[in-house]
């Protein structure tokens, strides 16, 4: 009898219990679907349903997201995310693994692929390169110590207030729909059902840690990240929505840091969540690419 949905599993990384959805078919080649910031693993359900017959699909929740634990410090540096990703591949013995990742998840996966080129078979990164050169230049106008002071202020603010609460589940769905108008009502309902939790007083809040709003200033230098991009050897597909705020690397020049195995696809009538906004076309393109 086929499973209707995935099973919930967990692994330990940095003394933290991290959750992942396992879609079965363990004898098939492994494929990781990695979500983005303030999202959750079940946002991949529609894609996973299409790929599960040919792949062992694993969808992890980043620390502080979905059903993974929050850190006691509320501190979420990029290095920690990359370590967690490396631990998932190592502990589940997934190498060489195929990866499809969105936004923050794409940034994490690209860094992992640069650190361990032999461990990644193919990579699909949906708007996963982080801030554009224009945004990076604007950020550089602010002294480094001011960035750290801003982070302290954001952390203090996050620690002094409760998570946003919605009076009803419908209100939370409305907010999800507002964040991405391309979503159908059914999509927004599904994403909210798995991305929100009911509080003791009957209200609803998002599962992610509010401290995620305070992005740590400690990271690799931009030159080091660009060097990692150049170390990626696997065939790589970068995906962009033409209605998104994200900057296309072909247009902003960042494509020069990648090798010849990288190509970029862009989609009309799509924002930041291309895999939701243009689902059929996205699944068809990705299925052909990772085959």
Question: Key features?
Answer:
291 residues; alpha/beta; Rossmann fold; 37% helix
Question: How does this structure look, described?
Answer:
With 291 residues, the chain is α/β, with parallel strands linked by helices. It has one domain: Alpha/Beta hydrolase fold, catalytic domain (Rossmann fold). It is 37% helix and 19% strand. It has helices at 45-51, 78-91, 104-115, 133-140, 144-159, 169-179, 185-195, 222-231, 249-252, 274-277, 279-290; strands at 7-13, 16-22, 30-34, 56-60, 97-102, 120-126, 196-198, 204-206, 236-241, 262-267. The strands form two sheets. It has an eight-stranded mixed sheet with strand order 1-2-4-3-5-6-9-10, with helices on both faces. It has a two-stranded antiparallel ribbon with strand order 7-8. The longest helix has 16 residues, at 144-159.
Tally of helical segments: 11
Number of strands: 10
Q: Characterize the quaternary organization of these chains.
A: single chain
Low-confidence stretches: none
Strand content: 15-25%
Terminal Cα separation, in Å?
26 Å
Strand numbers in spatial order across the main sheet: 1-2-4-3-5-6-9-10
Q: Give me the CATH architecture, please.
A: 3-Layer(aba) Sandwich
Radius of gyration: 19 Å
Q: And the CATH topology?
A: Rossmann fold
N-to-C series of helices and strands: EEEHEHEHEHHHHEEHEHEHH
Number of domains: 1
CATH class assignment: Alpha Beta
Question: Which descriptor suits the 3D outline?
Answer: globular
Describe the biggest sheet? 8 strands, mixed
CATH superfamily membership: Alpha/Beta hydrolase fold, catalytic domain
Q: State the share of residues found in helices, binned by percent.
A: 25-40%
| Mean pLDDT across residues | 96
Helix-strand makeup class: alpha/beta
